[in-house]
Structures are given as structure tokens and as C-alpha cells.
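Repro:
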Amino acid sequence: MSLLILIASILLLLLLISGVKLNAFIALIIAAFFVGIAKQMPFPDLINSIQSGIGSTLGSLILIIAFGVILGNLLSDSGAAQRISSVMIDSFGIRHIKWAMVITGFSVGISMFYNAGFIILIPMVFAVAKSTKQPIIYLGIAMASALSITHGFLPPHPGPTAIAVIFKANIGKTLLYGLLVALPALFVAGIVFPEFIKKIQAFPPKGLFESKTFAEAEMPSFQISILTALVPVFLMGTATFSELILAEGSIRSVLLFIGNPTTSMLIAVLFAVFSLGIFRGRKMQDIMDKSGSAMSSATMIILIIAAGGAFKQVLIDSGMGNDLSTFFEKSSLSPLFLGWLIATIIRIALGSATVAGLTAAGIVQPLVLASGVSPELMVLSIGAGSLMCSHVNDTGFWMFKEYFGISISDTFKTWTVMETIIGVMGLIGVLVLNLWIK
């Protein structure tokens, strides 16, 4: 019965989001109520479960999201993102231009939301394609694959960070393992796959990319730009390594504090305020005004994550997770594969990678606790599944289609296949790592 209720709740979500066109935040809350009522939860308990899910999800996440938005805005508004791109292109040359786009996308994507990174880098893709005479889609897929991988696998992005909170996974280890999984996926999706789609032509709308292009003197140096983008990664990575190699003591405690996701993102923002703002003659008021405007763009992301947390908590508190655990306990499937599979199914049904990841995490959480599998690897397996098979119910699908001006058929051949490659390679990477990490 629980499985039928779960399937019905997912179908309800699909109907509300894709059919009725209801906002995902409202749809997730309705789905949470549906599950609680169907499982005959007392109404006060149902309300408390929804509120608890929102609080527990956002409590350790909202600051990371907020600081991530501000950091991304500072990188783009200062010209640092453009500087990173231009130097990479000059360094790799035309023959290896894909590598420049992949590394640029990866560097910028680590600290930016996918949509923000895409909008910032897409004009550069067209500029590079024009100057190097390379196919636009060929370069666009290389860039988009890097942004998608960072969005799906690497903290401090909201999806993997929120899933890590659910599984109580170590954020630093998740980032470290995520990098190991991301690199092979990035090579196949961003370097190998574009060779098969070079003949697909793009016809972007005229005038679409008349965004600001910074003059040479307006941009910060490459060293400052790349350092600022990677500050949170350096800090979290240092904390992870200190936990592995240093004995308990004051130095390790300090490094762990500095490498905490919230602390490291705050340090990165403060560093960026001065390195990309104050030291380059910008006024603090102007920096804060634009950062505040950028924050408004993250409001709906935060609300959807909160609603996903509420839905997850109702699944747990209603006993759904335990029922499904019992249903799947005779299965020979690894929890890593099962989490990936459930996330894939929900991704196909609903389109949202974040919703797919959070929902799948709530479903398999009891299995993870019982199996003893690495919670960090569970984060990555579900993250990989949440990227699978993007199609017409995903905003990323339409963004890619419209910006490049290609047909729906060609979008399936390029964007959808790329996302699926990343998801499959991510699962393979997780299963290989699982052989070594116990």
C-alpha cells in the first residue's frame, strides 16, 4: 500500500507541476499533505512534520545558498568570470578549445548556480565560436556539461548539500569524492561526446547575447579571479584532509571550523568583496545593492528546497520510508544503485534535479542507515540519478534549446544525451569508489 501511495504522490506532483502548471513549492506541500493523509497521520502530527522538515532542511543550508548567490554575483559583475574564460582560451588554443570551455565551466560552476553560470558563460561561448570558427553546439555542450556536473555532484551547490544534510554526510568528504566522480564524467560528457554532435547547427535569436563585455582594463587579473572562485573549495578541502591526517587538537579544530561550508562560503564572500570590489575602486554600497538584488533570484530555489524537505520528512514520519525499506529489503540491489534509480525515475517524472534528489533521499534514508553504506557516496549516487534524462519538463532543457536556437529533436540529441551520460558515468564512478571506501 505504501508503494502505491508513493507512486500516487509522484503522479500527483507530475500532474500539478506539468499539467496544472502549479509552482513546484506549492505542489510539493500539497503532495506532502496527500502522503500524510493517505497514511492516516494525525493532523497535528502532519503539520508538525511539514514544519520540522522545512526547519531541518533549511537550518544548515540557507546560509550556504545565500553566500553562494552573492559570490556568484561578485564573480560575474566584476568581470572575473570573463577573465577566467579568456585566459583559458588563450592558454589552450583552438585545437583544444573544448578543454578551455570545460575548465572554465567547471571553475565558474563550483561556486555558481547552474542557471547563473549558464547565462554568464553563454555569451562567451558564442564569442569563442565566432573567433575560432568552431561549431557553437560543440562548445556549448562542453561548457554546459561542466556546469551541470558541479550542480549535481559538488557542495556547496544546494542539491548535493541538502542531500548531504539528510544523510548526515561529511560535506568535505562529499566534495572530495565528488571531484573523483566528476572528472571522468566530465571527460566523457564534455570532451568525447561533443565530437559526435559537431554537425548540429545552432540558430540563436538575433540580439540575444548583447550583454556586457568587459574591456581588458575593466577585468581583474586571472590569478585573483580564479583564486576567488576556488576559495571555498580550498577551505573545505583543507578541512577534509586535516580530518584525515591530523590528530585531534587546536589546529585541526580551527581548520575544521574554517572549512565548514557556512564559514568557508562567508570567508569566500568577504574575500571577493575586497579582491573584486573594494580593492578595484567599487563602493561597498554598490556591491551590497547588487548582491541584494542577486539574492532575490534565489528565493524560489530556497522555497522549493524547503518544500522538498517537508515532503521528505512526511515520508519518514508517516512510516513510508520504513515500509519501503521492508519492501526493498529482499532486493539484491545495492542501496547506491537503488538511490540512483529512484532519483532517475523522479527526475524523469518531475524534471527538477533538486526535487528528485531530495525525494529520493527521503525514500532511501532508512536503507542507508541499515546497510552501513557510505553516506557521502549515497549523496553522489542520488545526485547522478537526479541529472538523468532531462527532457521537456526541465527548465534546463528549454534554456539550452532557446539560447542555442535548436529544435526539440536536436535538444534531445545534445542536452538530454549529455545529462544522461553524466548520470550514468556518475553511477559508475560511485560504484567503483565503493570498492575502496568502506
